[in-house]
Amino acid sequence: MSARSLTRLGDLAAAGLIPADAVPALAPVAQRYAVAVTPDMARLIESPEDPIGRQFLPRPEEAVTLPEESADPIGDHPHSPVKGLVHRYPDRVLIKITHSCPVYCRFCFRREMVGPAGHGNLNAGELDTIGAYLAAQPAVREVIVTGGDPLMLSARRIRALGERLAPLAHIRLVRWHSRVPVVAPGRITADLASALAFSGKANYVAVHANHAREFTPEAAAALARLHAAGIVLLGQSVLLKGVNASEEALLDLFSTMLAHRIVPLYLHHPDLAPGTGHFRMSLAEGQALYGRLRGRISGPGLPAYVLDLPGGHGKVEIGPDAVIGREGGIALVRDSHGQVHRYPEG
Ligand code: SF4
User: Fold this and answer.
1) Going by DSSP bridges, is the β-strand pair 340-344/330-334 parallel, antiparallel, or unpaired?
2) What is the pLDDT of residue 170?
3) Inter-residue contact 183 to 40 (CB < 8 Å)
4) Distance from C-alpha of 42 to C-alpha of 4, rounded to nearest angstrom
5) Binning pLDDT at 50, 70 and 90, where does residue 314 land?
6) Does 155 or 77 have the greater pLDDT score?
7) Is the CB of residue 268 less than 8 Å from the CB of residue 223?
8) CA atoms of 101 and 114, how far apart (whole Å)
9) For the chain, which terminus, N or C, has the lower number of CB atoms within 10 Å?
10) E strands, 148-262, where?
């Protein structure tokens, strides 16, 4: 197996991950959406149909964009006051610090913004502008660093962000959202882990993983290095048909997270990103599956099942009260302000 990431269809075929005769049909998909499979994940793939292959190998279904799907499915753009920053809730902001990822997940909600053709990393001047914006926002308590995948940055660049945030005492929490600890665990060196431990802040890494098999011995060692650096580990997962949409797969995933000292935080319903319809269950199916997990795992092991409402209306827990009715294929979902939104279930 190759020691470098596989980023072209020809590489995937040469590695035996996709059939060579599938390459012509997949070319338009790979042209539109970036492809990358790390050696760590390539080693786990037994077939394009297994839970790891489905997450990272391009498929012909991705060429189908449904009418309800959008390039900005959770509505980041209207809430972006300065480049690279999303300010949707009063107490927290997102910083999208890079457009690169170690892998390109086929279900990604930012799939039209990430990849080698994206805008790269925020530069020093852009980080200064973000620092100045945050200095004038005393209500902001938490910075969530995302991308792309922010742990693609070097320890030096991570420390450069820490220097901007250090003087801002009102910012008490920093949370990094990343797939790196499981898909490219070798990147989590002791130096990188210590760079993430910003002085004077509570530092979290929300580890994105969707299947228990992603927790290899190398991933376990990377997670231990983060833990040793004083980082609190949270888990985030996406409910994906063909990957983890069964009681057994989800219970195995969440209990494996707990065993690695990760507290599962969110189980996301997949967003309405283009070409991802084959991954989505209906909300009703997702709610029924989630309901069957209750009582089968201890309290800290069951994450909140959440939906990011299209149009920038934020996240809602899809508990029993969230869907207040249905009209045809449309679910009526109540947000945290009591407003009702129409969500196409598919
Ligand atoms: S690592 Fe995250 S941002 Fe990058 S493609 Fe996967 S889900 Fe999207």
Assistant:
1) antiparallel
2) 98
3) yes
4) 10
5) confident
6) 155
7) no
8) 7
9) N
10) 173-178, 202-208, 232-238
Amino acid letter, 335:
D
Residue 14 per-residue DSSP state: H
- pTM beyond cutoff 0.90: yes
The two structure tokens encoding residue 267: 């189980």
What is the C-alpha separation between 252 and 243, in angstroms, rounded? 12
Backbone phi, then psi, for 161, in 5-degree steps? -70, -40
Annotation says 43 is catalytic: no
Is 83 marked active-site?
Answer: no
Residue in this structure with the two tokens 């991954």, named with its chain if needed: 279
Q: Which two tokens stand for residue 25?
A: 């049909």
The H or E element that residue 226 is part of is: helix 217-228
Residue 50 annotated in active site: no
CA–CA gap between residue 60 and residue 267 (Å, rounded): 26
- Hey, whose CA ends up nearest to atom 7 of ligand 1? 108
The neighbouring-strand residues paired with 98 are 121
For the question of residue 326 being annotated catalytic, the response is: no
Both tokens of residue 3? 């020691």
| Residues whose beta carbon lies within 6 Å of some atom of ligand 1 | 101, 103-105, 108, 110, 114, 147-149, 179
d(CA 94, CA 92): 7
| Options 54, 96, 110, 201, the catalytic residue | 110
CA 345, chain centre distance (Å): 21
pLDDT in tens, 20-67: 999 999 999 999 999 999 999 999 999 999 999 999 999 999 999 998
* Angle of CA points 307, 312, 313, to nearest 5°: 65
Residue at token pair 């914006």: 133
User: pLDDT, tens digit, for every residue of 58-107?
Assistant: 999 999 999 889 887 777 777 899 999 999 999 999 999 999 999 999 99
Choosing from 32, 43, 50, 92, which is the catalytic residue? 92
Predicted pLDDT of residue 117: 72
| β-pairing verdict for 202-208 and 232-238 | parallel
CA distance 293 to 250: 8
Write the CB contacts of 220 (distance below 8 Å, at least 6 apart in sequence): 260
